[in-house]
Amino acid sequence: MARTSSAYACTECGWQTSKWVGRCGECQQWGTVEERAAAGASLARTTRAVAPGLGREARPITELTGESVRHRQTGIGELDRVLGGGVVPGAAILFSGEPGVGKSTLLLDAAARAASSGARVLYASGEESTGQIRMRAERTGALHDTLFLAAETDLATVLGHIEAVDPALVIVDSVQTLASGEVDGAAGGPAQVREVAGALIRAAKGRGTPVILVGHVTKDGSVAGPRLLEHLVDVVCHFEGDRQTSLRFLRTLKNRFGPTDEVGCFEMQDRGIAEVPDPSGLFLSRAAAPVSGTCATVAMEGRRALPVEVQALVAKSATPNPRRVTSGVDPSRVAMILAVLERRVGARLHDQDVYVSTVGGVKLAEPAADLAIALAVLSAITDRPLPHDLAAFGEISLAGEVRPVVGGAQRAIEAARLGYTRVVDATAETLQSARKHAGL
């Protein structure tokens, strides 16, 4: 009989090696190489066919209905928008975000709203005690008789709570704090995270109960643990925001039941997190009269058009190397726009300090803000304010052309709804003509 040998493989990318190493040689991940049976040994055994159980036979797709998996609203409009209409029964949702951004507060609010409708909700936390959760619930008004709390770090105990409570919604905060006695390794390791997530997802699918898993993030903002975790779940949501501002955004990175380009807007308040259905005025200044160096643009956050004000300040530099300071915009893109302005428009910027910022702490990453940045800088140079009813959006090329951007019609409609009667966009053709249209 041939001797069964052992091999080691990476749980992330499948890379194999004959001996154990701490770091995968392919994907460079640490702690993901585990021992498994060699390919020859796995081929020596075959799996017998088993007849499907009663009610589990394969059926034609035309005979099946989707009534049992319709979206159910959570009571939070912005959360339902991002999820595609609500929570689907049996769905597994991964909720990630930076520490302190408000993940637990938002999910506790969602649990309370579900409990207020009479549904039984289980909130299992491995990071806080039940007393700490109740303290936050008192502050946010999330006290309900059908909201059950459990402070557990053992997977089997959490599964036992699910059996005992029989909830309509399960929230686990977080998946990295739970551990299974069936698997070696500390909580949060790749093997433990994979086992914990797999068990909770199987329970959700088997019972038809949606489960929301809170996940930690790494330094680069990705979900901690094996990449397999994001493949196992149905929905991956990321909650983001700047600690210097109260605004929070919820985005979907994966959604099997809805779109992935929707964005939910929330505001952190003393009594918890409040949804912001219409954030149109959050990113505009309140100046009574037009001020030079400001220009409004319309940014797209998912399918939502948001007006944003860009501000620029140009001052004589006292150093040989002028400063280029940005906040909320891409610094490399601003440097390119300044070069185009100096070369194509004749603006003198090589000996000027330039400061560019957005109002409200919003971040503009799309090239549609190029034209607004350029007009704001030109307005600051000439010290001539732009009309208060003017909005601009468009991408600027190195040749000084103004290119059309995605969602131009929707941006123009949103600008008109907010009272911007003059819109400068790709119809200006060049930066020189855009400058004339803006009155500079």
From TrEMBL:
UniProt-listed InterPro entries: AAA+_ATPase, DNA_repair_RadA, Lon_proteolytic, P-loop_NTPase, RecA_ATP-bd, Ribosomal_Su5_D2-typ_SF, Ribsml_uS5_D2-typ_fold_subgr, Rubredoxin_2
Residue sites binding ATP per the record: 97-104
Domain RecA family profile: 68-217
Keywords: ATP-binding, DNA damage, DNA repair, DNA-binding, Hydrolase, Metal-binding, Nucleotide-binding, Stress response, Zinc, Zinc-finger
Pfam families listed in its UniProt record: AAA_25, Lon_C, Zn_ribbon_LapB
UniProt record similarity statement: Belongs to the RecA family. RadA subfamily.
Function description: DNA-dependent ATPase involved in processing of recombination intermediates, plays a role in repairing DNA breaks. Stimulates the branch migration of RecA-mediated strand transfer reactions, allowing the 3' invading strand to extend heteroduplex DNA faster. Binds ssDNA in the presence of ADP but not other nucleotides, has ATPase activity that is stimulated by ssDNA and various branched DNA structures, but inhibited by SSB. Does not have RecA's homology-searching function. Plays a role in repairing double-strand DNA breaks, probably involving stabilizing or processing branched DNA or blocked replication forks.
The protein's name in its UniProt record: DNA repair protein RadA
